[in-house]
Amino acid sequence: MRSTHRRKERTMRKIIVCTFLTLDGVMQAPGGPDEDAESGFEHGGWQKPVADDEVGAAIAGWYEHSDAMLLGRKTYEIFASYWPTADPGNPFTERMNSMRKYVASRSLTSVEWQNSTLLEGDIVDALRQLKASDGGDINVVGSGDLAQTLMRHGIVDEYRLTIGTGKRLFADGAIPTALEPVSVSTTKGGTVIGVFRPGGKPSYDSY
């Protein structure tokens, strides 16, 4: 007798860029004055004053279907120096420490933070293998240079942005891409929270 059970179709893991942006597209050093002063950036710590409970709830939701983070060297070192000894009462502390962390770096030779793995070989090949592996979605947090690499190779599946001079996510030389809005909302504190998916090459027309 032929089985009536259909084999469950396997879905690829998504790579999702999650980042804080100013209204003019700056993603540099949202978390503190000393987080990233590269190129003389003087506005570190700009995100916290505009954060509120709605922003926190939205960010928590971004991790609902994700079980891993993808980090560049700078963001990894910032997180690894903070989260292992962070306040256990912070609802993000346990989650950040327990999640699987994949680290893309040419200079690090080891990673000591709990559940961290240093990716080896070609980063694009490694990430395509990760996307095809078992597991939930993978959030790219901070890691601006890494995000640029992912965007150039077309392996970003979604952008989740909180939008409130420095490094920009969509920097000069970014490949033009059509973005499909999934959801856009504004918190009482004035932060715009947007989710977008790449829609291939942009189309053009005239009136």
UniProtKB/TrEMBL annotation:
Query: What domain of life?
Result: Bacteria
- Give the Bacterial bifunctional deaminase-reductase C-terminal domain ranges: 13-192
N-terminal signal peptide: none
Any GO BP annotation:
riboflavin biosynthetic process
What GO molecular function terms would the record report?
A: 5-amino-6-(5-phosphoribosylamino)uracil reductase activity
Q: What is this protein called?
A: Dihydrofolate reductase
Q: What is the lineage of its organism?
A: Bacteria, Bacillati, Actinomycetota, Actinomycetes, Kitasatosporales
